[in-house]
Amino acid sequence: MSAKAFTLKALVAATIAAFGVAMAVPAAYADEGPKGQGGPTGTQGHKGGGGPAQGVGGKGMGQGGPSADSDAKGPRYGGEGAKPEPGTQGGRPAWASQELTDIGRMNVARAPGQVLERSLFNGVAELKTADGYNVAFYDAALEILKTSADPKADLKDLLANATTVRVDSPLANLAFYKSILTTGEIKDADGNVVWSVADEDRNLAAALFIAMASDKTNPVTVPVVHAVDVIFAFPTEAGSTATFNPDEAQDALVAEPAEVVRVAVYEVHEGL
Questions:
Q1: How far is residue 260 from each of residues 105, 208, 214, 263, 271, measured CA to CA in Å?
Q2: 242, part of any domain
Q3: Does a structural domain hold residue 235?
Q4: Domain containing 240: what range?
Q5: Which residues have CB under 8 Å from 168's CB, separation 6+?
Q6: What tens digit of pLDDT does each residue of 11-23 get?
Q7: Is residue 77, in this structure, part of any structural domain at all?
Q8: Residue 188 CB contacts under 8 Å (≥ 6 apart), including other chains
Q9: What pLDDT does residue 42 have?
Q10: How many separate domains does the chain show?
């Protein structure tokens, strides 16, 4: 009986010891734990998929530096890519860097070429008649400037005539001005000649148009005419395609009769 009790006690003791060793094994590796998802928390545990690596996260490299075959120049003026048109500075016209006199409402001369052309055609449309074009005013005014002993008085009489038909738009008159100095004629949208002058009369014809384009209270001076010519790439300005280019000396030949026309228009308008 006592031997049996001893044997039972020894068996129980051995069993407890075995369980103790088995329970001790996980405790010994608790600091590392499984490296997969859901392992117990420890100093290095939970290294599964997800968080950014230490020292690397938050340092994204953006959207692309230049590739290995890139020239890295971009579309800047001076590179081999997109270059500005001749006569401009990166999209700026040649006159943009020049000091020009104030030309008042004639600043519309800076409008794009297609706008100027459209204004010319609109002005021509105002002269349209059933039989062609009414250019009687321009013929008479040109003759006055060429032959009259008192051009201002004669122009005032012409302007005051109720039958006088002329274009008042500054942009249309500037388009006429440019066309006359460039080709000696004005054409409609179909290429028909509306009005033309001889080469020796181009300055006087141009004077008519620049005077009617100007502010009626601001004198038409040589610097004013020259400023318009610079904008239109006339005389010695780069890029001019005109066949009859007024230089600064010729600007004076335009400015003098233009001032006479301007004063006549102003005085008739004001009833003087």
A1: 19, 9, 12, 5, 16
A2: yes
A3: yes
A4: 98-270
A5: 212
A6: 445 554 544 444 4
A7: no
A8: 121, 124, 133, 194
A9: 47
A10: 1
Pairwise CA distance, residues 99 & 243, whole Å: 26
Q: In the chain, pLDDT over 70 holds for what percent of residues? A: 57
pLDDT tens-digit map of 218-236: 999 988 888 888 888 765 5
* Greatest pairwise CA separation for the chain in angstroms: 162
What residues are paired with 93 via a beta bridge? 88
Question: Any alpha helices (H) in the chain, and if so which ranges?
Answer: 2-28, 113-126, 136-147, 151-160, 170-183, 202-213, 222-231, 248-270
Q: Is residue 87 part of a domain?
A: no
Residue 93's pLDDT band (cuts 50, 70, 90): low
SS3 21: helix
Amino acid making up residue 23: M
Question: 219: phi > 0 → left, psi -120 to 50 → alpha, else beta; which?
Answer: beta
pLDDT in tens, 235-267: 554 444 444 445 667 788 999 999 999 999 999
Q: Minimal CA–CA distance to 208: which of 155, 248, 154?
A: 155
